[in-house]
């Protein structure tokens, strides 16, 4: 099984495909000085296959590569950052306390 993640800018979301089928997505709003992740969803048929974690890792790495601070309004992304503290550096400082990440 191969998870492929692409940015569907027209829909303001990253999409994860597993073996060619849409498996999940992470919606975002691109702001002038940050990216706000608002919702992550894994389709029921693909739960438990690592799709959500792959999405979270990808979107955070992409934000880091673009030097865009992250506002993790999405509970899944905020929770992922809490567990994977190596991504604290990409979180907009004001968001650390707002989303209980510190």
TrEMBL record:
Signal peptide: none
Protein name as it appears in the record: GNAT family N-acetyltransferase
PANTHER family tied to this protein: BSR4717 PROTEIN, PROTEIN NATD1
Residues covered by the N-acetyltransferase domain: 6-92
Organism (species): Variovorax defluvii
PROSITE patterns: GNAT_YJDJ
SUPFAM superfamilies, alphabetized: Acyl-CoA N-acyltransferases (Nat)
One Pfam family linked to the record: Acetyltransf_CG
Cross-referenced CDD domains: NAT_SF
């Amino acid at each position: 099984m191969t998870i492929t993640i692409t940015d569907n800018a027209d829909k303001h979301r990253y999409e994860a495909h597993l073996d060619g089928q849409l498996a999940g997505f992470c919606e975002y709003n691109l702001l002038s000085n940050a990216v706000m992740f608002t919702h992550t969803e894994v389709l029921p048929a693909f739960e438990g296959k690592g799709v959500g974690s792959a999405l979270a890792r990808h979107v955070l790495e992409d934000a880091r590569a673009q030097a865009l601070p992250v506002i993790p309004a999405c509970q899944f992304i905020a929770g992922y950052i809490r567990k994977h503290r190596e991504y604290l550096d990409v979180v907009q400082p004001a968001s650390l306390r707002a989303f209980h990440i510190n």
